[in-house]
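Re: that chain you flagged

S.,

Sorry for the slow reply, it's been a week of failed gels. I finally had a moment to sit down with the sequence you sent. For the record, here it is as I used it:
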Amino acid sequence: MVTIPNLLTLARALGIPIFLYLIFNESYGWAVVTLMIGGATDYLDGKLARALKQESRFGELFDPAVDRLYIASVLIAMFVSSLLPVWLLLSIVARDIALGVLLLMLKMAKMPPFEVTYLGKAATFNLLYALPLLLLTQTSDALSEISYILGWAFAGWGIGLYLVTGIQYGMTGVRRLRKA
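Prediction finished late last night. Pasting the structure tokens below so you have them in one place:
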């Protein structure tokens, strides 16, 4: 369990309270830096796991769990800080709650959890780009307009893919439970 990729994922998890502190103290620039580091560790942990042959079932479960926690924390903090609309927050949190319940049902039926799909990774990738860009709209007039446009573009794709993959994962889970 103690591998370089898992340590990177742990570092990303430890970045969550740091991000929350920064955003609630309106240190948006540093909050963006924290999110960028989180995004980099999310990219690197999987690459290093494969390159170093340190892939593990723990890492396969830990990484997406930290991704969900990170995204949910960032969304809630940005909503509380009046930086995001409620519909965006609710759409993503509702998807994660529904899939969380389905995962519990699969676990109770002694079935394996969902395998993360490429589309699911693309959804997370888009959201991890969107959120720092949307935060940048608070930091500088020079970056504000382009950050707004790019941030909402990535957010639109991310939310769309997040909901589509939520439906796909949900259908897969329900089919597995029906077969059992």
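What I noticed first: The chain is about 85% helix and 0% strand.

Talk soon,
D.
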